[in-house]
Each structure stands twice: as structure tokens, then as C-alpha cells.
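Lab meeting minutes (informal)
Scribe: AK
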Amino acid sequence: MVGLALCGVAAAMEPEQKFQGFNLQGYDDNGEKAWNVNGDTADIIGEEIILHNVDANSFGEQKMNVTAKTGTVNQTSGKMRLEQDVVVTSEDGKQLTTDTLDWNRDDDLVSTEDDVRITDVGMMATGTGMNARPGLKTARIHEDVTVMIDTAPKDVEENKTVTITSDGPMEIDQALSLATFEDNVVAVQDDQTLMADRMEIYFDSEMSTIDKMICTGNVRIQQGENRSYATKAVYSAKTQKLTLTGRPKLIMLTEGGSLFATSGN
């Protein structure tokens, strides 16, 4: 169900209608407001509403705000395309920026083929192309992925970052507190590098601290001139141990500034 509120007077002599001040609202099956879309001005051409200085909100399970310089809403399908300086901000502070974004409100889906940047407390992710379901708190970056994670404890001011790159895709599932990297994964911290075909990182419930990491497929660890090879590597933040299995099987204690060490967390 959709409610439409227009302010201003349409231009009588022009083929399209122009409005100053525009508001479009949608409601769920219970009559509760599900979303709204606001614009400084609106041009209505057939089924398309072209908005300028868009400010939209979704009031579902995961509230979010979306802003952009321009947006086009299809009155029949309700789908929206946003362009120029697109910013999506969730109620818990996560933010996504990109050049264009397609927003399917009925399917709770936002997507783009352009470069994206996702920022959160202690983490920043960039890449090309993305699908996300804000209500389900999942996101998938398609390719050329770079993620930087602060691994220092919350009560320590020291900036200690691990940088992970992959050809992609990379998926984030907040319900599982899990980030999964695929294809040519490389993680670097200080002078240590870990490479694998696939990497799974499990976080704490706030997605701010690494709890466990599982790497599989052609695992290689390099520190200076030293190299280790394995088919699988499992890192535990609790024990600060990196266990390698395969060729060969060995256990490395991570002390001090070792790879993915969380300084006692």
C-alpha cells in the first residue's frame, strides 16, 4: 500500500509535471509506515518520478537512511534508482557509499555494479559491485575486495590493522558474525603474510573483534624469509594459536605482534 503526498503546483504548459517538495510513503500489511522518500523537487514523466536531493528512509527490521543527489522511482513497481553521491546509513552506524544504487524495497535488496565502500567501527571494506539485504544484515561484494580490520582491543589506543584482499566475492553475514573471502585471498599484518584460496573470519557479536579464522586451499604463511605451507590453517584469538594441517602439520604460537594476534583478546 502506498501513500503519496505532493506539495506545489504542476507546470501547466509543460509535458511533464513538476513539483516543489515531494513525499512518497509506503505501508506494510498492518498499516504501519514501511518507508518514505522525500525530494526537494520532482518531475513526473509517465510512470517515472525523477527526484532531486533525495532523502529516503526504510523502517523495517533494520532501519536505514538513503541520500543521493538524484533518484528515479517507478510508480508501478516501486523500485528506485539512486545516482550521484549515494550514501546508505544503518541505524547502528554502518555506512555504504557508491555512485549508483538500485533499491528494491519489496525484496529488501540494494545493489550496484559500481565501486563501493562500507565502513563500520573497526572495519572498512571496498570493492566493485555489491548486493545487500539490510533487513537480513547480509552483503556481498563481487570483486576486487579490500578489507581493513582493527585487531587491537577496544581499551587499547594502539592502531593495529590487518589488511585482507581477494579477487572476490566477499560475503558478510551479521547473523553469523562471519565474513567469507574467496579466490586469491591475501592477509597482511606487519611483516607477516597469509595466503589461501578461501578465508572465513568469525567475529564477536558486535563484528568488531576477530574470534576465529579458517583458511583453506593452498595455504602459505610468510614472515621474512621463513615460509610455511599447508592445506588448512585455523587461528584462534582465545589461545592465540595458528594451527596448520596438511603439508606439514604444525602449530605456531602467536606472540607479540604476530599475524592476527589481538593483543590478549
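Next up, CB showed the second protein from the same session:
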Amino acid sequence: MTMALPAQFAQYIPAIVGKKQVAVQYGPIGIDFGSECIRLVQFARRDHTLELSASAHVTCDAEIRASAKRTRALVRKALRKHGFVGRDVVSCLPPDDVKIMMLSYLHQTGKQDEELIVQRIAERVDDAIDNYVIDFVMVRPNVKDGQERSALVAMAKRETVVTYLECLRKAGLMVKVLEIESTAIRRLLLAKYDHGHSANLMTVSMGYAQTYISVLSGRRLIYERDIDFGERQLIAMLCEELDIDEREARSMLVRDERPAIELSEDEQTVSVTDGFYSVAKPLFMELVEDINRALVYAASETRGMPVERVYLTNTVATWRGIEKFIDSLIEVPVSVLVPFEGFNHTHASTTELDPRGALVAGMALHGLTETG
């Protein structure tokens, strides 16, 4: 037996159903194919609040990656098991496949930034410029004619880009955009602050061989610099000092729940990590000099406003005690940029120690924040 609703209630049904349909907006899936795993993250906007919707960290060795069929099956299983919605993804090329650089050029009336940037890049490469895919983000967009502008440029071989896109397609995914890493990190950082945020913030992304320093003033990127400094030099130093191999060196430094290994010397007990940071301090001081230059530049560009906090991300940010060590070398508070901190993630599994976790989280926020 069915009962008809009174007319005065029935007229509200379409509005109620429509509201339920648009209450949750799912973002794209941020995905990163690492050498040993696949990292996936998805956010959703529910009632104007961002929340972590799904997260997965899936082991994937070279043998699986070599098979498009097995990779596709692995990705499908992960999406289904962890509750991901849709197949749209945002991704970045592997670090070794993309060159990121800063370019400065004079703004000229009647010429587009794209034209001037491509012209400068063509002067730097030996190969034909048509063989590359180029993307860029303006660093200093508000300048007058004849003044210097700066742009953060990412470039990769066209063949490499096509191959990567094809791998994603064969995995059953629809690529929404290929991202510049620093743009994704910037998006994550800004999502943690209110829309009215105006402070200066710095990110230091330390990878295997390169470190990128970025400064945000409110929502504007005002400084970007790349440095030939990273995990490779630091691990090599640790291996030489302690006469150990690379695997042992990494196990000593990785941030986990175990106590730091300790060595006894002259009746004093010191942790291996403390000892290493002491030995590596000269190397870090070169990085500190670059950080201090960025701090001075940020203040000069924003009428004396200091940088409020420095955030560490990428590979070296997973090392035990790294934030305390760098904090002791500069006058600005230092923290590790934790990917899911501040987001509701009741129904999603989280792995905060993934070196590229912040990057993937930033990619997953594409389209859900003002920083597209």
C-alpha cells in the first residue's frame, strides 16, 4: 500500500534531492608513480569544507610497472578498495624527466609572456624547442614595461610527456592536468590557511639532488630558486663518515616510531642523527645562506613583512629531527609540511611519512581551491 504525500510537501522534493546531489564536490585524484609504490589521494568539498576523501599507498615494483595490464589491475583495485570516486587524475612527471628553472626577462609592450619565455628557453637548449613541452608560473607578474619579470618554467621532452600520458591512459585513468610540483605544494599550503591569509610563508622542498625554495606572500608566489643540493650529497657524507651502505644510512635517518640509534663516545651518549647533523652542518650552511637571502628578499618585496614560517617538504623532510636542526640555524620557525594535518579524514587511511605525500595532496586539491 502506498500513501500519497500532501501537495504542500511534494513540491519541496526536487529541491531536497538537488541539494543532496550537489552537497559533495569530489576533486580529481592526485597520483604519483614512484619507483616502489603508487601514491593516490582525493579530497572532497562538503558544505564548503575540504576533507580528505580517500588515500592509498600501493606497493608497485618495476616488474608490475612493466606490464600495462598488471598496473591497470592494481590501480583499479586500489581505487575500488579505498573508495575513490571517478577516474580523473592530476599528476606530475617523475623528477628525473622534467627540468625546472627560473627565467628572468624584460617585459615588452606588444609581446605575450609565452612568446618571451619560449624565446629565452630556445637560447638555452641545443635541441629544437618544438621537441619540448613547456609550462610556466609567473613569479613576479605585476611589473611595468621595461622592468624584469620572472617565471618558474617546467620543461620536458615531448616524447617523454606522451609516454607518461599513455601509461596513465593504459592504467584506465583520465588525465586532467600535468602539474608543476611547486604549484601543487603551494596549493596545499594555502588550503591550510584562511582565504584572507596575507602572511609571508616559505617552502623548502629538498629532493634527491635538487632543493627548491619558494616564498608566498598571501596567495602570490614572489620568489623561487633551485639549488644543487639534496639527499644524494647528505647520504654520501653519512656513508663515508660511518663506513656504511646507502640502505643503512637511510634507515638511520628515516622518521619513524623507533628510538634513534645511539653511539657511546668518551662517556657521552649521542644519537647517530645528532652526530650526522653536526658533521653535515657545513653542507647545510650553504642551504641556510640561500634561505636567508630569500628571507631578505621577501621582506624587501613586502615592505618589511617577515616570513612567518618555513615549511619543509619532499624526501629530506622525512628525516628524523630535520626541522629542529634547521630551526636551530635560522631565525624563523621551521616545521615539516604534514599533508593531511588540518583536514577531516575520518574515512581515509593516511600515511604522513611518504616523501611525496605533500605533493600528491596538493595535486588532489586542484579545482577545489582558489589556486587552480
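CB comment: The radius of gyration is 23 Å.
No objections, moving on.
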